[in-house]
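Following up on my earlier thread - several people asked me to post the actual chain instead of describing it. Fair enough. Here it is, all 156 residues.
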Amino acid sequence: MHDRPYDAAYRVMAVRQFMDHEITLALPFCLGAGPPHAHEGFQGGLAMFTKTTIPKPSFRAFELLHRMKGTRVECLSSNDPVGALACSSPDKSHAWVMLYNLMENYKHQPYATSVAVKFRGLPRGMWQCTKTAIAPSVCDPRLVWEAMGARLSCAR
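Reply from S.P.:
Thanks for posting it. Predicted structure:
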């Protein structure tokens, strides 16, 4: 499950929980997935990269979290298990929100749902939105690896 988009949602939820509980340092991952001879490609471990340096979804989650600059603002989701984390720039001209859908059963099939997101502390008005997704059909490096015949590996 650590090689699939589920893990990205888990990492964002964990960061939100750390922030909610004022935890400022946590090291719940390792960077690499072990030495080249240990396995081929994806193997389900906590690493943020495969041994062949393919970024896993958890790395992509941290990339998106890094884009969020400014002060945290309250952001509530109307649809459990969809959670949210948001912040705004100091001048309140930009805001970032990250929604995550953390299904307890990581093998659960994707589904469509609606979520109402409520912000507090942002100016009223029209906002322009852009979307970046980490999902089973989008930004899933394991699917790319599987489409290549699961052959990508380091030279021995």
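The two ends are 27 Å apart (CA to CA). That should answer part of your original question.
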